[in-house]
Amino acid sequence: MPSIAAYSGASNNLGATEGATFKDATMDSESARMSSAAEARFRIDYPNSKPRAVKVIALDAASERVVKEVAERAWQRATFFTSLRFDGAPRSGEGWTMQAWLGDLAGRTKALVDEVATADLVVMVSSAGTCAQAAAVIGEACAVRKVMTMALIIGSEQRSNDELSKTLASLRPFAQMVVIASGDEYIEEMLAALRA
């Protein structure tokens, strides 16, 4: 532990050491002080964040396969969807123009706006080379509810830069974060990091 020398002497001349005596005093680091028993009473004994409610939506057939594989793991508050259907009828009072339906892994139909309303984060998964038109509707529903959106692009290593650019262009306006995943396992790692 680092120590500092405490000066005690009668001299008025700060540069003089004659007649001065030094005693060794230790100074605890901030980390050591916070680990002490005296500070323990101020500790919070529960995690600093609760699991996030994450909705993961596959936008095409290739991403659907990956989403189904990831959904087989044990998750706390992640819900997985594999399809999106549209109805042209506007929803009154919701502030957006189109009604959309999601299909969960059990084949049940869920309203997109209801799922977004209970989400902290919506993750759209798309394979490179596809034009993710559904992202516009999902992005619009999330914007109305002020829910954060993220887009993950998988399979980019098998596609050309032009194909990847096409997918990026269709996702970027509707996602606050776009990630080109280096592998299919990235989705699982990201959800684990979010405590989903």
Write up what this structure looks like:
This protein is an alpha/beta fold and 196 residues long. The chain folds into 2 domains: 3-40, no CATH class; 54-193, Rossmann fold (3-Layer(aba) Sandwich). It contains 7 helices and 9 strands; from the N terminus they run E-E-H-H-E-H-E-E-E-H-E-H-E-H-E-H. The protein has helices spanning 30-34, 37-40, 61-71, 112-117, 134-145, 161-171, 185-193, and strands spanning 3-8, 21-26, 54-58, 78-87, 99-104, 109-111, 121-127, 148-154, 177-180. The chain has a 7-stranded mixed sheet with strand order 6-5-4-3-7-8-9, sandwiched between helices. Helix 6 links the parallel strand 8 and strand 9. The two termini are 41 Å apart.
Question: Mind sketching the topology for me?
Answer:
Blueprint: E1 3-8, E2 21-26, H1 30-34, H2 37-40, E3 54-58, H3 61-71, E4 78-87, E5 99-104, E6 109-111, H4 112-117, E7 121-127, H5 134-145, E8 148-154, H6 161-171, E9 177-180, H7 185-193
Parallel strand pairs: 3-4, 3-7, 7-8, 8-9
Antiparallel strand pairs: 1-2, 4-5, 5-6
The total number of structural domains is 2
* Name given to the CATH architecture of the largest domain: 3-Layer(aba) Sandwich
Radius of gyration: 28 Å
Total DSSP helices: 7
User: In this structure, how is the largest beta sheet organized?
Assistant: 7 strands, mixed
What's the assembly state of these chains? single chain
Overall geometry comes to elongated
Strand content: 25-35%
- Structural class, by secondary structure, is alpha/beta
Which fold does the CATH topology of the largest domain refer to? Rossmann fold
The tally of strands reads 9
| Poorly predicted runs of 5 or more residues | 1-13, 89-93
